[in-house]
Design a protein that fits this description.
It is a single chain. The protein is an alpha/beta fold. It has 2 domains: 2-314, Up-down Bundle (ABC transporter transmembrane region fold); 337-585, 3-Layer(aba) Sandwich (Rossmann fold), CATH 3.40.50. The protein has helices spanning 2-7, 15-47, 52-101, 104-109, 112-154, 161-203, 205-210, 214-240, 242-267, 272-314, 378-384, 408-413, 429-433, 442-451, 455-459, 478-491, 508-523, 565-571, 573-582, and strands at 337-344, 355-362, 367-372, 393-398, 401-402, 415-418, 427-428, 468-469, 496-500, 534-538, 550-555, 558-563. The strands form 3 sheets. The protein has a 6-stranded mixed sheet, with helices on both faces. The protein has a 4-stranded antiparallel sheet with strand order 2-1-4-5, with helices on one face. Strand 11 and strand 12 (558-563) form a beta hairpin. Helix 2 runs parallel beside helix 5. It is elongated. It starts with a helix and ends in a 12-residue tail after the last helix. The model is unreliable at 586-594 (pLDDT under 50).
Length: 594
Amino acid sequence: MRSIQALSKFLKPYWHWAVLAPLLMILEVAMDLMQPKMIQRIVDQGIARLDMDIVINTGLLMLGFALLGAIGGVGCTVFSVLASLGFGADLRSAMFRKIQSLSFGNLDKLETGQLITRLTNDVTQVEQVVSMMLRIMVRAPMMLIGSLLMAIVTSPQLALLLIVLGPLVLIVLTFVIKKAYPMFGKLQAKIDDQNTVMQENLAGVRVVKAFVRAGYEEKRFGVTNDRLMEIAIRAARTTAVTMPAMMLALNLGIVAAIWFGGRQIMVGSMKAGQLIAFVNYLMRTLMSLMFVSMLMMRVARAQASAERIQEVMDSEPEVQDQAGALRMGEAVPQGRVVFDDVTFSYDDDGHDPVLKGLSFEAQPGQTVAILGATGAGKTSLINLIPRFYDVTGGRITIDGVDIRDMDQASLRRHVGVALQESVLFTGTIRDNIRYGKPEATDQEVVAAAQAAQAHDFITRFADGYDTMLGQRGVNLSGGQKQRIAIARALLTRPTVLILDDSTSSVDVETEIKIEAALDELIRDRTRPLAGIRTSFVIAQRISTVLNADKIIVLDDGRIAAEGTHQELLSSSPIYREIYDSQLGAFSVEASPER
C-alpha cells in the first residue's frame, strides 16, 4: 500500500469531497443496519400480535430509513467520483510533466509503450481504486463491524457461528491475495509489451505495407496478445476461487443459523422475527467480507500499477542544472564551440563508449560537417551539444563556458536542431514552423520558410500557411517535412544550428539553395533571422559537405581526419574512399595522385 499512499497527495485538493463521501456512506450504512431490526419488530410485535398499527408505522419508518440511506448512497457515489476523477486528472498531468522533464537517457530506459500504459491504464487502475475506497472501503468495514455487533446483540448464541466462518474466510482471502499480487505486476508488463508492438506498428505502417509484412506483424501482435491473455487467465483463475468460497461460507452460515435458530424457536427461547433479523445481519456480515475480498483484489492490482507510476515519478533526470546555472545570452553569444577530450557512453557505468576522446573546435561563422559511416557516432556527437545527454568524460564549451554550467532551457533556446526524421504535429503549417517561437510574426515565419526553400510549395496549397497537417505531417512528402523542420529551427535564430542529415529527402538543387541561404544567414548579419554563428551539418551525401569550413571524419567514435575538403582529399584515405565511392567517377577534378 506504500505506493498508493505516496500518491494520495494528489487527493488533497479534493479533500472536502473525499471527506463528504465517507460521511454520507456512514449515513447509508446506519440506515441499512436499522432495517433488520424493523423487520424483527414487524414480525414479533406486529404480525404475532395482529397489530396493524405497528406493521404500518414500522413499514413507514423503514421507508424513511431507506430514503435517507438512498440520499447517503447517491451523495457518496457523486462525491467519490468527483474526488477520484480529480485525483486521476492531476496524477496524469503530474506524470506528463514529469515525463517532459526527463532526459533522453531516462526515456531510453522507460520505453514509449511502457510510458503510455503507465499514463493511461495504470492511472485508471489507481483512480478506480480510489473511488472504491471512498465507497466500498468505507461501506464494507463499517457494515461488517455494524452487522457483527447487531448479530451479537440479536442472538449471542447464534453469533458463535461467526467464530467458525470468519477465520475460514480470512484464510482463503490471504491465500488468494498472496498468489494474485505478483500476477498483477506481470499483467501490466504484458500490457506494456502489447502497447509497444502496437505503437511500433502504427508508426511504421508504411514500411509494413511496403514490405508486405502485415502477416508477420499480425503474428507478432498475436504473440503479445496471447501472452497477455495467458497471464490474465492465470490471474482470473487465482481470484476466481474468492467468490465461490465466500458464497459457500455465506450459505453454510445461513443453513446453520436456520437449523439452530429453528430449534430455539421450537423450545421458545427465540422468536421468528429475531431469527429473521439475525439471518439478515449474518448475510450482511459475510457479504461485507465478500466485498472486502473483492476490493483487496482491486487494491492488489492497483498497488502493482501504483509502483509502476511511482517509478516514473521517482525518476530523476540524468541531465540536471547545477545550482546557479548560467543563462546563455546575457551577453551576445559568439558561438565558439569546443570539444575537449570528450568521451560518451550510453551505459551508466561508462563501458563501451560510442565517442572516445574527441577534441576539436568550431569557430564563430564556421560550418562544421560531420562525416562517417553508420554507427560512427555522428548523431551521438551532436546530441551532446544541446545536452540531450551529458558527456561521460571531458567537456564541451560554448564561448568558453562548460555547457554543464549552463541553464538547459537557456542553452537550448540558442541551439536549433533539425533532425533527419522530421517530427511534425497536428495543426497548421504556420503553427509547426513557429513551434519553438510561438510569438513569431507572420513575416518571420515566411522568412524562415523562404530560407528553408519551403515557401513555394506552401503557397501552392489552397490554405497556404494555414493548411492543416495530419498526424506527423502525413499529408506532406519527406522532403517537404524536412524543409518545414529546417524552417522551424531557423525561426528561433539559434546561435548554433544543427542539421542532422536533415536534407536527406531533398533533391540536390534544393539542397544547394538551402545551403546558400544558410551561408547568407551566417555571414550577413543584416538579413532577417540572422543570428546563426556556427552550424554543424551531418550528412550521408558528401556533396552536402564539400563547401564546409571544416570537415570532421569519424571512425568508430574517434576523429579519423579533420580539415577542409581539399585538405582531406589529399591527406585522408577514409575521406578519399568516401569521396571516390560517391563522386569520384563523375568528378572532373584531378586527384593529386593523378
